[in-house]
Structure formats: C-alpha cells, structure tokens
Amino acid sequence: MNKGLYITALVGGGILTYIFVIIAMDPKTTEMMAAVPIPILIATIFHLMMVYKMWDSIRDGTPRMSPGKAVGFLFIPFFNIYWLFQIYPGFATDYNRYLKEKNIPAAPLSHGLMTAMAVFILFAVPIVNWIVQAVAISKICNAVNAVKRRR
To answer: What is the pTM of this model?
Structure first.
C-alpha cells in the first residue's frame, strides 16, 4: 500500500473539508458549500479501499472477518459506529496474532493507536485528528506491506 497516497487522501480530505466549510461560512462565498462533499467523497472511497486491503492482507490467517464484511458493515447506519471498533482495534489484534502464526518478523500494531483511530474518525478534532490518522495510516500501510513482502 502506498502510504503517501492514503495519508494524502484521508488526512488531506479532512483538511480540505474543514477549509471548505470555514470558507463557506462567509456569506459572500456560500457557493463554496457545493464543493464540500468532494473531499469527503474522495476520503471515503480511499478509507473503504484501505479497510479492504488491510483485512485482505491477513486473509490466509484466522481473521475475525472477511475484507468484504469489514467494508460492507460500514454501510449499516448506527451499527457502523460499533463496527469501527471491530475494524481498527480488531485488526491490530488479528494482525498481531497473524504475525505469531506465520512467524513474520514485523512490528506489531498498537491496539491503543487503532482504538484512537476509530475514536477520532467519530469525533473529529482538527489537527489532533489529522495527526492520529496520519500515524495510524502509516502504521497500517507498514503492516500490510510487511505481510505482502512475506508472500
């Protein structure tokens, strides 16, 4: 997985959305509101692609869910809030178990960082959110790439 691409798409999408909303709050630039959904849509597509790829990377182990289920359940209203905590901290748990099962010498994922990723997806706090997401996405990409190199 290309770390720079995912960080740019997800964190950059959040930053652009924030900027567009601030600009659109000015009564002189209300037409800017039409542009707000664009970075949100791009970030959402890349988020779904990342979730699929991360769960696909450990498919030959004993993961708790398939990549399709990981992505598909995010489309269920209200349940998707619970599901974020299955996707991210659950991936850290399953990935670390996968490393042990397959004897892959790679750095384990932090359960706390993945929990923070899920929390900050729900409660967007500018700047803090972007930093946590950038670090978490970087670790996820490193983890997926480490597994793919072993295949």
So the answer is: 0.90
